[in-house]
Every structure is written in structure tokens, then in C-alpha cells.
Amino acid sequence: MLSNYGVDPILINWCAESGVDFHKIMYKTSHLFPRENGDRLFIYTSTPGRLIGKYGSLLEKYKVELEKEARGKVTIELVETNRIMTEEEWENYFVSRGY
Asked: pLDDT tens for residues 26-60?
């Protein structure tokens, strides 16, 4: 099963190799039942193409590493966002909304 402690170092290496700032991506893991169906990893980023790499090479390379960590099948879904806001931008957004 995937855990944050196992995913973080792999994603840090993946981002470093692809040239994406690790602090500007977000991810979520979910576990599928039965266990044979594996795990899902959703990665939210504004630059999914850079994480995929040329001809999908980076995606496949790190999918293998994630499957070793999970000891099973892993499905990776890249979700394109407009951009990830910084903490300061989030605070300004919520203050302006009256929260």
C-alpha cells in the first residue's frame, strides 16, 4: 500500500529530474478493494507534460518505483490545474471571502 512516507521521496526525485518544483504539486493516494486492484495516485499539477516526459519515459520509470514501494499495482492519474496557490495567496483568498 502506498503511504505518504513512501511517495514523498519518489515524487521529490521525479520532480527534480523533470524540472518541476515539488512544492507546486499536490497528490492524493487511494486504495482500491480488493487488494489485487492496487492503489491509485492522483497528482495535481499545472505542468503534467513535464512529469510525463518524452514519450512517457519519466512516467513509466517512476511508476515502476511506486509499484516497488506499494508491492503491487499502481495507477497514476495526472490532473491538470490552472496553478497551485501559495500559502499567502490562500490566506488572502479566504480573507477576501470573509472566512
From this structure: 888 888 777 677 889 999 988 889 999 899 999 99
